[in-house]
Fold this sequence. Notes:
The chain is built from nine helices and no strands. The protein is an all-alpha fold.
Amino acid sequence: MSKLFLALTFLIMPFVLFSKNTNKADTIQEPLFKPFIERYILDEIKSLRQENLSLRAQVTKQISEAKLESSDRAIEYTTSTINNIFYIITAAASLLVLLGWRSLNDIKKSLKIDMSKKIQTLTLDYEKRLQQIEVKMTERSKVIIETQQNITETNSIHSLWLRAGLEKSDEDKILIYDEILNIKPNDIEAMTYKADTLLEIGEVRWALNLSNSAIEHDDEYALAYWQRACAYAKLDKQDEALKDIKTALELSDTLQDELHNEKHFENLHNNKLFKLLISHS
Length: 281
């Protein structure tokens, strides 16, 4: 319902504001819908958190009910079995007394020994079964908790990527990429985009180190080689830059069109091998 209300608000509010402020239309500098987009993103995040809390409560309740039900079944089955044993033993004892095979004292002793053995065997058997059930429930609860954590981390990372796309300041983008890397330290995409942003502000050495880290984690990620080539080009290491460009193009054909537009390759424009790569594009 909240999503429908927000969607209708996005559609209606610009017309209302336009009709009320027609004489001030020339003074409007920024789009009117930006606060509504931010509000929509915040509502989506709030909704995801509420769903996660609800899922956690449901899982906890189901685990408790399953454990209680297993214990009740085990106790009920044990009680029923013991009662049946008592009935059988009582009938057998009565028969033995009537036939005169043993004295009453011998029968009592024998019954006590047999009863203790049976009860001990049944108790051990059900203890093992309960332990197996507890182990399975513990494993399942761990899987559920890990899944919830992964969902929460994924939602947080997704919201941070959305924020990074809306930011115009390179410094703010770097801070957002750092938040993503705090949640997921091996996120090579965040490393690569951070390296690209660092190149924009002139931190070439830092960008080179980040590109190397990304390649160490995934040596088949084309954009990592591309960003490292940009860093090498800025440092005027043309041989290394051309080698990484070739690797990036081998891993991703779509980067071929970017050779003409990449501004960090300005130092390579007079290089014969670079011109040869452009001619093949």
